Amino acid sequence: MTTTTASPFAIRTKEILDTLAGAGQTKILQTIDSPMDATVTMIDEDGSRHERICMCSNNYLGLANHPAVIEAGIEALRTYGAGTASVRFICGTFTPHHALEKTIATYMGTEAAYTFVSCWNATEALFPTVCEPGDIIISDELNHACIIDAMRLTPVIKKGVKKGIYKHSDMNSAREILEKAKNNPEITGQIWLITDGIFSMEGDIANLPELRILCDQYNALLVVDDSHAHGVLGKTGRGTHEHYGMCAPLASPGSSFASPGLPGEVSRSDGGGLPSSTSPASSQTEGVFAPRPYSPENGTVDIFTGTLGKGLGGGAGGFIAASQQLIDLIIQRGRPTLFSNALPVTVAASANAAIQTLMNEPDRVQRLRDITTYCRQQIKSKTDFEVLDSPTAICPIIVGPTEKAIAMSKQLLEHNIFVIGFGHPVVPEGEARLRIQMSAAHTEAHVDQLVEALKKL
Ligand SMILES: Cc1ncc(COP(=O)(O)O)c(C=O)c1O
Fold it and tell me: How is the chain split into domains, by residue range?
């Protein structure tokens, strides 16, 4: 008879999983058996089916189940088959990739764009490719995990790349790190400064105008991960840069694919005329955080990373949007694109249709704004919960301990509301939250149901 001893991996994993279960912190994979929309059909662990209002998806514009987006994917599946069966540079580049990348560049207002299977993938392609020894990447402390991991990865691939972290949205802290970088003899190359456009857990907006000024002062390149801002911020939903008047309007708003606003068309600001507030985001709707009209003096963003899996509704995928030169370098040297298959063509076609739909139906952006405002007002006026303020579609209710957020999320399911509770390690210990995310597909009646359920918690 042979006796087997548990492997070290099995022992420590059991410990981790048991600890999570003991603390009521186990994440349950909730199963959906319908298209993603304002309401979804869920199958619970006991096999029962429930129609619930979904208020935790990134389907900001309600495009995930839009007929044009679905049809484009089906058509591409018929025309190009199921898989690319290749990385882009071998035989994995299809017509829909080019079409989508042109659309993304136009939409973002950059010279060029290049797609990946996710924004995570795009971010991990970006820094290890564009950085060289002697560079430094400077990042907001609350930037998304894909940025954190890309920053960890970069010095492993390119030894000698340094990192700097500034306090969340604190311009004095960002300036301090930039100043230190300037005075550090080991930093001889490029300074990169990266921020989320909208911070996913707080729903607040980066101070792009001031970051632009700082980057100009220190000859740094400004990189923005605008994943949560696509379709959400800016008059026509182009993102955080549009919100701040930092991208040239498209040639004919509404049906706007005629002429992209290229970076070269926007002269870089020396900061003249811009507010010089150095305080963190005290009010997201006033002062430097307020929407502004476009002016070349506002400057622009050098490089974007973004996702096709949130407001842009194509299903999945990510991109880098930047100068043609940077994209050319990514195509030649980016490891995730050289060694990993291309974005599936069906997804590329759906994403293209989603962006076109957004550009042709900009009223969806206003609809999202209106329903989000209604949601915040109703929670504030009719419940005892505090919801964080911001002009974004993310409405977090901070509840404290992780297990409390998870328990509240479970209770909401009983009232047919699907909202996820986020706790440690996604957010700091003690700051667990219910993150309500609104969609243009939601109605006032959906919000009223949410409020009734919150009142019963
Ligand atoms: C700011 C930000 N960047 C990147 C991502 C990842 O996007 P993707 O799902 O395309 O990898 C997310 C998703 O949550 C995000 O919030």
Answer: 22-54+363-455, 67-360
List the catalytic residues.
200, 228, 310
202 in contact with ligand 1, CB cutoff 6 A: no
Alpha-carbon distance of 42 to 45, in angstroms, equals 10
Distance CA 201, CA 40 (A): 23
Question: Does residue 297 come out as left (phi exceeding 0), alpha (psi in the -120 to 50 range) or beta?
Answer: alpha
Q: How far apart are CA 120 and CA 355, in angstroms?
A: 20
From 310, 420, 422, the mutation candidate for ligand 1 (largest count of ligand atoms within 8 A of CB) is 310
Amino acid in the structure at residue 280: P
CATH of domain 67-360: 3.40.640.10
Atom of ligand 1 nearest to the CA of 226: 1
228 pocket-lining for ligand 1 (C-beta < 6 Å): yes
30-62 pLDDT, tens digit each: 999 999 999 999 999 999 999 999 999 999 999
What ligand 1 atom has the least distance to the C-alpha of 317?
Answer: 10
- pTM greater than 0.85: yes
Query: Does the beta carbon of 314 sit less than 6 angstroms from any atom of ligand 1?
Result: no
307 Cβ closer than 6 Å to some ligand 1 atom? yes
- Mention the CATH class of domain 22-54+363-455: alpha beta
- pLDDT > 80? residue 287: no
Residue 148 CA, ligand 1 centroid: distance in Å = 12
Pairing type for strands 394-400 and 318-322 reads unpaired
Name the helix (H) or strand (E) containing 397: strand 394-400
- Would you say residue 24 has pLDDT above 90? no
| 200-231 per-position pLDDT tens digit | 888 899 999 999 999 999 999 999 999 999 99
